[in-house]
Amino acid sequence: MTSERIGSALNEFSTCDIGDALVKLKYPNGGFLDGITMYSPDRHDAKLFGQVITVKMVDAACNTSPSLPKHFCDYNEAGKVMFVSQPHGMYSACWGGLMTTRAKYLGAKGVVVDGRFRDIGEHRDMDFPVFARGQSILGSNGFTRASEVNIPVQFKDELWIQPGDYIMGDADGVVVIPVSHIDAVVEFCTTRKKIDELTFEALRSGEPIGEAIKRLRQ
Q1: The pLDDT of residue 153
Q2: Among 50, 55, 78, 211, which residue's CB has the most CB atoms within a 10 Å radius?
Q3: How do residues 102-127 score in pLDDT, each as one tens digit?
Q4: What pTM was computed for the model?
Q5: pLDDT of amino acid 217
Q6: Hey, which residues does 119 pair with through a beta bridge?
Q7: How far apart are CA 208 and CA 62, in angstroms?
Q8: What are the DSSP calls for the chain, one per residue?
Q9: For position 218, what pLDDT does the model report?
Q10: Which residues have CB under 8 Å from 205's CB, separation 6+?
Q11: What Rg, from alpha-carbon coordinates, does the chain have?
């Protein structure tokens, strides 16, 4: 499927739906990016979806890692989502309002930061999706620098983010979907959505939840 068709097929589902599918498919952690939260936009119905461009940050003092020929934010592309991997334990931000301004101009769908960001009001004013592990008042200067773009980056244990994977984020959280699992995820979610509709109907009519789940979902 093309990226547009994949987006059309998956956009009707939530991160919870997709996570359940990936658990069923035995994908590490169900693709769940634990600890990543939506900070912008400030709307519960906001959703982020797109193909991933990865960025690996390193400690600014590191002189053995590669360097980029241009600012990492300039690698954003229209319709895609940047995933920034910051070294754990840093209390500085690696994304801010200037970067959102540039990313939005380039047509990026949003950013997911496995680390900290700052300037929350600026992102919300621009209605730009920002998902992150936390906030900071400090910029990246002197703390971190971008080292590589579009390489596999480890999120946690066996869960890695690969360039070209798909990411979905909503008010419940963020999930990464490998290209190899797209068809199976769509099939599972489509079937489960019909079952969920029947389950909700049963619960609204007064059926006990245990009985409804046993009858419809197992």
Answers
A1: 98
A2: 55
A3: 999 999 999 999 999 999 999 999 99
A4: 0.93
A5: 79
A6: none
A7: 59
A8: --HHHHHHHHTTS-HHHHHHHHHHTT-GGGGB-TT-EEEESS-TT--EEEEEEEEEEEETT--SS---SS-GGGG--TTEEEEEEPPTT--S-S--HHHHHHHHHTT--EEEEEEEE--HHHHHHTT--EEEEEE-SS-STTTEEEEEESS-EEEETTEEEPTT-EEEEETTEEEEE-GGGHHHHHHHHHHHHHHHHHHHHHHHTT--HHHHHHHHT-
A9: 67
A10: none
A11: 19
139: nearest Cα among 118, 122, 125: 118
Angle at 10 between CA 7 and CA 14, to 5 degrees: 125
- What distance in Å separates the CA atoms of residue 22 and residue 95, rounded to the nearest whole number? 29
The interaxial angle of helices 3-10 and 182-204, nearest 10 deg, is 20
pLDDT < 50 regions, the chain: none
